[in-house]
Write a structure and sequence with these properties.
Blueprint (H helix, E strand, L loop, with lengths): L1 H20 L7 E3 L1 H11 L1 H22 L4 E11 L2 E3 L5 E3 L2 E15 L3 H67 L7 H34 L7 E3 L12 H11 L1 H21 L5 E15 L7 H7 L2 E9 L7 H67 L5 H37 L3
Parallel strand pairs: 1-6
Antiparallel strand pairs: 2-5, 3-4, 5-7, 7-8
Helix pairs in contact: 1-5, 2-4, 3-4, 4-5, 4-7, 4-10, 6-9, 6-10, 7-9, 9-10
Length: about 450
Amino acid sequence: MWRKKSNKRMIFTLTAMALLTVPEISRAETWSLQQCVDYAISHNISIQQGEQRVKSGELAITEAKDGFLPQVDASASQSFNFGRGLTAENTYANRNTSSTSWNVGFSLPLFQGLKEYKRVKVAELSLQQYLWESGSAKDNVTLNVMSQYLQVLYCKEVVRSSESQAELSAYQVERQKALIEAGKVAEATLYDLEAVAAQDRLQVVTAGNDLQTAIVNLTNLLLLPSAEDFDVAPLDEQDPSLSSAEEVYSQAQNINNSLLGARQAVKVADENISMAKTGFIPTLSFSGGIGSSYYTVSGMQSENFGNQMRHNFSTYLGLSLRIPIFDAFSTRNSIRRSRMQKLDAELALEQRETDLQKEIQLAYYQAKGARERYLTSEETLEKTRLSFEATRERFDLGRATQADYEQAKNNLFKTEVTRIQAHYEYLLRAKVLQFYQTNHL
């Protein structure tokens, strides 16, 4: 009698530990997929760095446009000379001199060989490239969050299935105890059932730990400080439709940010070639200024400061023409370097097109295969459940062995887990295809 109470107390303790180990999601704060994606995008460091690059591109446009503006500067100088110096009579004498001068000048580029215009063009094209690259970083974060979000949902389904199996085992243990007390079966038959029940409770604990790990991974992607009181909401769409891989790729070519950014990089490289060629073109600039000076010599009478400033006041205007003849092949090398950069950009674009097509094709066939497995496992699960119910009924009547019952129960659990895996893989691949096709969740 003491042994029965001890076993019962041990089973109760293990069950309580298993339930405490499984995360309590009923009290947790529920996040939708869109909320998770929005939060991740607003806090992701890589995306913030991309936004800083966009701001840098905007500043580059402003700087390029400022190249059309004139430059104005002012200068002033004061000098003192001591000792022997050359005089107006072409002799040397000991005297001290001092001079004060000031000047205000400006220069205006009239024609810079279209270089400034090309620089503005490159800056504008580069800004668009940065915007698409920033969008590509957001796309990567979205896909990562989506994948981990569905992993959490998958783990929750496995937890529910494991709990169902544990409940069945617990029921059989209690039923067997009642039969033993009634003297209908031997006590030894209880040990196998208790061992199976303990294994099922362990499976519940393992599934709960996997769920908690998936939640932690998701919260890490979101950069949340803790995974406490966090849960995700189920998806509304459980059987999304699939577009063909060709259709998805056709639409993705016009909206995929990484592909658009790679195409823009080719345009930027092409414009850099044009800007490099401006080194062969002459430039013309206009300059002007005003200034005056004050000069004194020791031992000689000098006009006062005001009079000298008025008498020495001068203005000047000028045009400067620069014709490149030989620049040590600097322009030629710049053109060659720009052409190499364009070739690199074209190769990167070709690689991105190939990768995108492969990603879409792989996602499509994975989604198609997962959907077929899901539909098949749905039908198989129903038949397996019926088979299990029949075996359990025979086992309860003593017409089936413990091994038959456990095999039927394990087959039911494996079939259900297979269905869950296929279902969430199908949802993930379908979501990926939908995102490639529309840029929306």
